[in-house]
Specification:
Helices cover 22% and strands 41% of the residues. The protein is an alpha+beta fold. A hairpin with a 5-residue loop joins strand 1 (63-71) and strand 2.
Length: 175
Amino acid sequence: MKNILILAGIGILSFSCSKKETTEVNNKVDSTKIVDSINASRTKLNDSIKAKNSENRFKDFNGSHLFTYQNDSSPKYSGTVNFTKIEGERDNYDVSGSIRSGNNSVTIKGFIQVVSAKHMNFTGEITQKIPENDNGKPYTRKGTKTFASKDGGKTYRLQDMVNGSGFVDYIDIKF
């Protein structure tokens, strides 16, 4: 009987200890692929946000436009002013231009930020040399000045109209 029990025990052990078929899990995913995928998605999202934030809220003024000067005792003098959009910024432009007619001149150089459909803030210098004003002595407006439109954005007029001689100047940018 002992032999039978020993044989039965060996048989049970041989069946229970036999090598069973194992299934290997090969579903391991490379973590660098996951990270690269996440980074690519984030870069795409950040680029779209950056592009959206650099779009103008208002009209695009990029290009060359008519720049005019007139006072109560002079004819209208004309020249050009160039607006160059600052890359990656919203409604911001570098501005430069001039008016020249004989001994008369007006120059503008600076930066403009469009703050509404009817207002632009200019920071820089506007220098005029008009012989009828102080015998042609140059007068310079420095700092931040406002150009405003009353005709729906076709013409923007400098709001600091009184020159160094105490006379009114009309300095306009026409689009």
